[in-house]
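anyone seen this seq b4? input:
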Amino acid sequence: MNARADHDFDHPRRPPAQRLGAILWPSFFGAGVATMVLFAFVDPIALAGISFPGLEISRQAGYTIAFLGFWLGFASACTFTWLLLRPRSRFHR
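predicted toks r here
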């Protein structure tokens, strides 16, 4: 196979569910691990007192807020990785 034939090959598009799963599943797993590591060393009540001293945040709300924040951060990183790994043929039509 020559180099020109490799360049012309267009990779098939993945179904939307597979693309979303490739972004959301690793970010969910990463957020879970990051949340466990954070709260192994920091109490959510103490963290709420430092971060938002005027708000009354329960322990469960602290866990939830941290998890969702980590999930959003990891999902954005996975999305950028997915965008960078797309084949060149998607951009040069």
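The chain has a mean pLDDT of 86. DSSP finds four helices and no strands in the chain. kinda curious what u guys think
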